[in-house]
Amino acid sequence: MRIQLMTDGGADIPQQLIEQMQLEIVPLYLNFSDGEYKTGHSLKLADFHQKVKKLNEVPLSAAPSPNDFYEAYKKVPQDKPIIMLSLSKELSSTYQNAVTAKNMLEKEEPARKIAVINTKTASGGIALLLHDLYNKIQAGYTFEQVVQHTEERVGDTITLFVLQTLDNLVRGGRISKVTGKIAKTLSIKLLMRGSEQGEIEVTERIRGEKRAVNRFIQQIGEYTKNAENKSLFMTHCNSESRATKLLNEIKEKYSFKETFLTDTGPIIATHGGDGAIVIAFFKDRKK
């Protein structure tokens, strides 16, 4: 690759694409009561799920430090441009720390070319942008062209979430135990999305698993009428069979050019909990 692609631990990317894109990932940190762990390094995904259940707690997440990014950039040859796609700056200080590190290194090595892009999304949304970026590089786009293209694509990115349980939101103190208990009793499911500003917001509260899933699938058609030339990324939290079934239902209704399915990493799983599913795709552009 003539351009080095990077992202952080807030992205959930299929392993085959990580290898194909020669992607470098700067891990985030998770702080449990028994210590601090690096996503994808000192704490693997299976261990994360076990720890959440064993300790009955959700960890606090922390962004990579400016020095973490500095060291990652420094490993790349000076004559190789870097494009870093970060977790939404509304969700983490990851973006700002990545920019700080870029400024530090560019002062030392003025010939460096580093672009840090705030994706305003997370999980599969970042994977979608990286995949599109990679394809443009392969098509011959210059560093400047692909940076501009990706910044425009950020505004086209739709990221939708459906939660099966609110247990982790209760554990993390984001909703009260009473609210969580009522929601569980009434089988209320949350539909969420990434806002234009890059925040995660609740869009609908739906009673019943089937109704929630049907509405989740229906939403796709509100953003695109031309799925044939688009890719869809889906990530799931410890629920592969449910995700596979849902993805098949989506493919029956919408003719996406290609689809990808992978695990949701610890950062999104911390809040989404078991059964959470995320999808990302590009919306139609207004003519």
Automatic annotation (TrEMBL):
The keyword Lyase does not apply. Signal peptide: none annotated. Keywords: Lipid-binding. Transmembrane segments: none annotated. It comes from the Bacteria. The keyword Lipid biosynthesis does not apply. SUPFAM superfamilies: DAK1/DegV-like (SSF82549). One of its GO terms (molecular function) is lipid binding. This is DegV family protein.
